[in-house]
Structure of 4-hydroxy-3-methylbut-2-enyl diphosphate reductase:
Amino acid sequence: MKSFNIPDYYRSTIVSPLKELRRKRDKLKRDFSPTLLDFGPVQILLARHFGFCYGVENAIEIAYKAISENPKKRIFLLSEMIHNPEVNGDLLSRGVRFLMDTAGRQLVPWEELTQDDIVIIPAFGTTLETQQKLSAIGLDVERYNTTCPFVEKVWNKANQIGQKAYTVVVHGKPTHEETRATFSHSKEAAPTVVVKDLAQAQRLAKYITGELPREQFFQEFNGQYSEGFDPARDLQRIGVVNQTTMLASDTQGIADYLKQVMIQTYTLLPDEVERRFANTRDTLCYATNDNQDATYELLTNKADFAIVAGGYNSSNTSHIVELCEEKLPTYFIESEQKILTPTLIRHFDLHQREEVVTENYLPTHEPATILLTCGASCPDAVVEGILLKLVSFFPNARSLATVMTDIQQSYSA
Ligand code: SF4
């Protein structure tokens, strides 16, 4: 895979070489088992896949290039480039400004922009409406467009099934930048509706079967359907695509469910299913799949707790947290600074949507076993900081050099 030129301070002298070691040993990605860092009184199990993906590295490379190529110009990012506070903070410190927040609220009025400005499109892509606004100002929207090719792949898939007269059902978070962008592109080719989860897919099914009156649809799916959408007409042939960072099992569950609804509603024989339900397979990206599969494998190991690092508004990271929470105590943190002391950790509670402090998170027994991973937008340097902070609480821990040598020997054996 292409390698990108990103600032060294996002890399790690511990984590990045370990990833490379595992990658070289397993180029076909068949081994999803974690890497054990055995420090003696504390053992860290590092997931096989995590951290910066293709799309994120591509976006970071382009953003820093935009800064270095335009020292005298005002540089704007449409919104957070990726959902990571370290990366966004660093860009802000270099004078980059956000035009919108993650919910799409305007921070800098469009009227303030001139054709001399530089605007960077984030990895999630953007809506056609925003692209048109920028072009109307005279801005070049392609020059620093960091839209991930895996997001564009979803747009293409939506387009393809739209051309075959299917309605597009997008499984995604309705307010997430990527889903808003996908919705915007999809609606050009097909009637489009967004469902956020299985419960909403089940509600949508009631309009497919005609159990609920069409008028109620407009209220229930307010803001989630394309203009002119008619549930009586537009739910007779459907296909499902998804925001690239959803939980694979959730998307599969929704697609399987809606397929069954179509089969039962229209009494379809197996070879007739495609008449009503497009075969899209899931449109998750490779990084989401790899990270989720590596998390499942990580969770087959017994441990005292898990730490998941990443931005609190990162969709792919939140799903990894959800998977871990099902199995063991899990702390979702932005960086090692949230590990306050050996007895206190400040972490994000996904359900209350706020940071909370937990006491006595480290076990009293030794060895303590900790699962460690992060989302696709989190730098390796952040994971390194967390790892070193945890190990620092164990004065009798083996040295990092010894642990790294052991690992290198075990993988070259
Ligand atoms: S998570 Fe996937 S879709 Fe999103 S930026 Fe990374 S590679 Fe692209």
Observations:
- The chain has three domains: 8-53+286-412, 54-137, 149-275.
- The domain at 8-53+286-412 is CATH 3.40.1010.20 (Cobalt-precorrin-4 Transmethylase; domain 1).
